[in-house]
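Much of the work behind modern protein science is quiet bookkeeping, done one molecule at a time. The protein below has been through that process, and both of its lines are reproduced in full.


***
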Amino acid sequence: HATLDQDATLVETHKADAFFSYKHFRAYQPLNTYWAEHDLMLHSEFRDGNVPAGFEQLRVLQDALALLPDDVQTVSLRSDSAGYQIELLKYCAEGKNARFGVIEFAVSADVNAEFRRAALAADAVWKPLCDAAGRPNEHEQEYAEVAFVPTWIGNGRKDAPEYRFLAIREPLRQLDLPHIKAPTLPFPTQEFGNAGRFALFGVVTNRLTMPGDALIRWHRERCGMSEKAHAVMKDDLAGGKMPSADFGVNAAWWAIMIIAMNLNTTMKRLVLGAQWATRRMKAIRVHLIALPGQVMMHARQLIVRLGADHPSNDLLMRVRQGILALAAVPSG
């Protein structure tokens, strides 16, 4: 199984030819498809900063699906609201992919006027959003299954797949100051009568039997994993430092970084071992790459002489043995 997280990230730059992003600074905006189970970037498309995050997301998903190994049998998709596109959702729910069929998904939904009315309906039963151990969310968030049927679903065929919408609300405790215009918040808000004002979010999914709180937690795992991957790409591996004013050169730089990222992930898992799988490049540099040593040539061999009592010596020996074990087996 492959869980794919699709998300765009802004790479701020001062290159004069770069376009302004929606956050009003010059940037590039690659759209990435992250394979959660293996911590690999399956697909990344380098784009100008003014390209919408969800532009041709279905086509990018199809390109990413074609890259999956033959032994992958099922796929699921997670995305933010950029993925709330009718053609993308229907493609997944209706099983239009010839290889994988139905693709289960959870995508952040648009909080439009109709969705707000569904969240305000009397039959919306709000439940506390808990973690896997049953502890309530620290931000006092609640969720509810809402009877929301947008036009693109209601006008479909009788045998069309079912979709499920969940609303999530979080109380806003800070009161507005009198005679001062309330600030524009970066997320939608909604008044719930005597209960007060809440931040309001939505999720659409075709996973019909999964409990609502578990589904929301599964959807939010995308934020923790893919956002960490973005930080590694831009900071640890210099993907955020563009070398040229030329778009093509910068796209090549980004592609080289993606290869380095995936190679680094593979080596951590297959050579360094499980305890290294979550370590960032800073730790690897300190404990492995930047060790002092003396390089010597002897008997036509390249030799690296290390301190006899250095604590990383055992690790270096295990690494070399692991690399040798990865050698390809001769065919035939």
User: Anything to note?
Assistant: The radius of gyration is 24 Å. DSSP finds eight helices and 15 strands in the chain.
